[in-house]
Design goal:
This protein is of the alpha+beta class. It is built from 2 helices and 11 strands.
C-alpha cells in the first residue's frame, strides 16, 4: 500500500454498475442537515458514498472536540463519472494538477481546510511524489497550473489502488492515466469543503433546490470557472 494515500476499507456495493452517468461536483450534504441526499439514479453507489461520508464525518467530529467551530460550513460534493474510453485516451485531468489552487476567486477564497475521497474500478489515478515549489510565484500574473505541469517528474509517481477508497487532500498533484485498450471506467470523488461550488459545469442536486444553504438560496448563482489568462492546460503526451 502506498504511504501517501490512506485507504478506507468497507463495502463498495455496486458502485460501477453500468449507467453512463456523469455528475460533477453535485451538492449532497449541507451544513444545515446531517442527511446525505442523492438522486435515485445514484442509488447503486450509496454504499460507497456512505463509506466516504462516514469517514469524513468522523474526522470532522474528532477535530470539533478541540475546536467546536471546525468546518461549521462544510459541505459534501459528489462527482460520479462513468465513461467508455478508447485506447490511448485519458478519463479525467490530462495534466498534472491539484484540485484547489487558482480560479475566479483565487485571491480570497483559498480552502482553509478540505479533503477528498476517490474511487475507481480500473486505470487508477497517478500521483506525483515530489512537491512543486510555488511560494516564489505571483498567482496574479502567472499560471500556476503551467508551473505544476513544467515541474512534474514522471520518474517519481505512484498509482492509487483500484476498487479502494483513497483519502487525499486538495493539494496532492495528480493526473489521469492512459488506457491501453477500450474499457469502461467508473470514477467517484467526494469533496469535503467549506467552499461554494458554483461553476457552470457543476451539477445541481434537484432535491436541494430552493433550500437556503449558508444563507444563500440554492442553486447558487453560476460563476465562470476560469479566469481569463489562467488555467490553460497544455496537454503533453505522458504515455
Amino acid at each position: 500500500m502506498d504511504e501517501r494515500l490512506v485507504y478506507v476499507d468497507g463495502d463498495l456495493g455496486e458502485f460501477n454498475k453500468k449507467t453512463n452517468l456523469c455528475v460533477y461536483n453535485m451538492l449532497i450534504r449541507t451544513p444545515e442537515s446531517a442527511e446525505i441526499i442523492i438522486p435515485s439514479e445514484l442509488e447503486h453507489s450509496k454504499e460507497a458514498i456512505k463509506l466516504m461520508s462516514n469517514h469524513a464525518i468522523s474526522i470532522i467530529n474528532k477535530y470539533k472536540l478541540n475546536n467546536p467551530k471546525f468546518m461549521d460550513n462544510f459541505k459534501f460534493y459528489l462527482t460520479y463519472d462513468q465513461k467508455t474510453l478508447n485506447s490511448g485516451e485519458q478519463h479525467r485531468g490530462p495534466n498534472p494538477h491539484t484540485d484547489d489552487i487558482q480560479g475566479p476567486r483565487y485571491n480570497n477564497d483559498k480552502s482553509r481546510v478540505g479533503f477528498e475521497y476517490i474511487l475507481s474500478d480500473n486505470t487508477p489515478t497517478i500521483f506525483y511524489k515530489n512537491p512543486t515549489e510555488l511560494s516564489f510565484s505571483n498567482e496574479n500574473k502567472e499560471d500556476l497550473w503551467n508551473l505544476i505541469e513544467d515541474n512534474a517528474d514522471e520518474m517519481a509517481t505512484y498509482k492509487a489502488e483500484i476498487n479502494k477508497v483513497g483519502f487525499m487532500n486538495f493539494y496532492q498533484i495528480h493526473r489521469g492515466d492512459y488506457v491501453q485498450t477500450k474499457t469502461d471506467r467508473t470514477f467517484i470523488k467526494l469533496c469535503v469543503t467549506e467552499k461554494l461550488f458554483d461553476a457552470d459545469s457543476d451539477t445541481v442536486n434537484p432535491h436541494l433546490s430552493n433550500n437556503v444553504i449558508n444563507g444563500i438560496s440554492y442553486p447558487w448563482k453560476i460563476t465562470s470557472r476560469k479566469s481569463p489568462g489562467f488555467v490553460k492546460f497544455v496537454k503533453k503526451n505522458r504515455m
